[in-house]
Structures are given as C-alpha cells and as structure tokens.
C-alpha cells in the first residue's frame, strides 16, 4: 500500500568523480574551511592586550610606590612616637579614690614589642593628696583644682620633650561611683 502524503525523494545527479582523489580533497578543504574572525579572540586583541599590559604595569608600580610610602610613614611615626633618644617612655595614672587622690608616674621601655617597667627608685614615683574626688560632691568645679598638684608632680618626672607624647589616665574609683551620675559627670569634666 502506498501512502499518499509520503514525500518523494528527489534524485539529484551525483557530481562527477574527479580523476585525482587528492584534487577532490584540496577543493573540498579550501571551500569548506573559511575562517571567521571572532571579535573576542586572542589574535584580534593582541594589540589591546599590549595596551592593557602597560596600563597594568603602571598601576602595579604606582600601587607598590604608594604602599611603600605608607609603610615608611607608619614605621617612622610608630617608632618615633612616645620615645626619647634612649627609648624611654612614660605613663601617668591618676587614681581618684574616695579618701584621697594619687598620681603614679611610670617609666618603661618597649623591648621586643613588650613594655618593660622599671619599678626601681627612678622608674616609678607617686604622690598622694587629700581629700578624694568624691568629697567635692557639693562643689564639683573645685575637683579639677585638687588634681593640679598631682599634674605638676607628674610634669617634673617626665622630660619636657615627651610631655605631648605621655599618656595620662584618670581612674575615678570607689566613692565616686556612689555619687549621682550628674555629679560624677560634673566632677570629671572639671578635671
């Protein structure tokens, strides 16, 4: 039985076979091998990559120079800060206690990244004054005046060239914590 809707095969004449089999191969490969240039191909962007390489070189060298400059600045700022010519550093702690206020002046050196304190007669000194900061509850503005003697004591112990680099801490303890918060703030602001 024959189908009516079936397609009929067209018969095309076959091309004449060439006399030489190599000539068929040559004509086939030349005709079918046509190269398209891909815009993203590496061969097209060779000139672009040279421009990009020189730009990347410039950016890399610039970043290295900037990084070295920052490292040098930090190095000199870090190692110069807070030291005298012989490597000494100083710290001052004011202990504002309830019965009296004390100042402690510490001398130390940094050795291998670790502070080494000298608690001998020249490395640590202290002084005490009465009354303590909490006794200025009625007149908070005078609390700061009471610490002036302590600050003068500290200034005498620290070399003048290191005054701007010496850290001073006020530690208000004990009785001051028992006062009203507003009074505490007034006392600390006067200091």
UniProtKB/TrEMBL annotation:
Enzyme class (EC, first level): hydrolase
Pfam family, one: GDA1_CD39
GO biological process: nucleoside diphosphate catabolic process
GO cellular component, one term: membrane
Region (Disordered): 1-26
Keyword Zinc set for record: no
Domain of life of the native organism: Eukaryota
Composition-biased stretches (Basic residues): 1-10
GO function terms (MF aspect): apyrase activity; nucleoside diphosphate phosphatase activity
TM spans (from-to): 58-79
Family of this protein: Belongs to the GDA1/CD39 NTPase family.
Name listed for the protein in its UniProt record: Apyrase
